[in-house]
Automatic annotation (TrEMBL):
It holds the Pfam family BPD_transp_1. SUPFAM superfamilies: MetI-like. This is Amino acid ABC transporter permease. The keyword Transmembrane helix applies. It is a multi-pass membrane protein. Its main location: membrane. Residues 87-380 form the ABC transmembrane type-1 domain. Belongs to the binding-protein-dependent transport system permease family. HisMQ subfamily. GO terms for molecular function: transmembrane transporter activity.
Amino acid sequence: MSRSPSGDRVALWRNPTFRAYVLQGVLLAALAALIGFIVANTMANLEARGISTGFGFLDERAGFSIPQTLIEYSGDSTYGRTFVVGLLNTLLVSALGIVVATIIGFAVGIARLSSNWLLARLATAYVEIFRNIPLLVQILFWYFAVLQALPSPRQSLNLLDVIFINVRGLVIPDPQPLSGFAATPWSLLVGLIAAIALGVYAKRRQARTGKALPIYWLGAGLIIGMPLLVFLLTGAPLEWSIPELTGFNFSGGVRILPELVALWLALSIYTAAFIAEIVRSGIQSVPEGQVEAANALSLPGGITLRKVVIPQAMRVIVPQLTSQYLNLIKNSSLATAIGYPDLVAVFSGTTLNQTGQAIEIVAMTMAVYLVISLVVSALMNVYNARTLLKER
């Protein structure tokens, strides 16, 4: 029994809160029973067909090569190693795509609102063309129609006899660190910390005196200048492996796969078209009075955009921008169409075909994309919370 607001005793089953808890408990139990039935039925079917389960296959020898690896890998490496290689390749193209798509998207979105008629129309044409062509078609276009039309290695496009572009990719010099190179990464960290400290100081100084520092130029100088200074003082502790044509291919240097370039271009250009519309809508959400007030203070257009409009527009831009970042990461799985060795291609593709461990491999792949998406969402939410306008 429970009591009503008037103090009268009522039956427990008439209490809405109690009924809600009971209903949720019944639904949760039913969901758990359904999941248990599916798992038990799946395990029984696999056992009946003689299919082994478990993750022991990750320690077995893979026996196949991967054209692009960010860590040491060979045909004798394990399937667990292929998982790591595919994951790193996925993270690489996703990170590159996010950076370039953001830059292009902001530039095109701002250009769409330009008073220059030609610039605004070109930006509009960009958005309308690239966001209405399927991403897979764009990937195939860049790979087959553009990059596969490049000359053979013997007729490579040559830049200063150190950079070569051909149908097999971009070949550039490979920096080989020597013993004195260890100090350079630490100097980069010191420069980054110094730039952050300078930013905090500049913000407090501006709040106290009203005088602003060119924090972007000073910060860039610290981040770039510190490693460069250490690099020069330690006697340039690098030697370069210059690519040379030997036979029908190049030896030495680093080769960037055309599959990576095609996927990178397609993901960046396609996602940038959506980001441009997000930026445009965010800027238009800022009241006109803010711009008029900045003009009344004789602020230049660039400062008005950077200091007045964009900071206020970010509260509208960031949530939608997060969705586009997640879409770009998940769309990178289309790499299988052109053979880029991402997680789906080398793990959910080749590894699955060789081992037959479908449940484990698909579950691991799904979990990876889920974790990546959740991490990106969390980081963007933290940034969004810091950029929200605080009411007084």
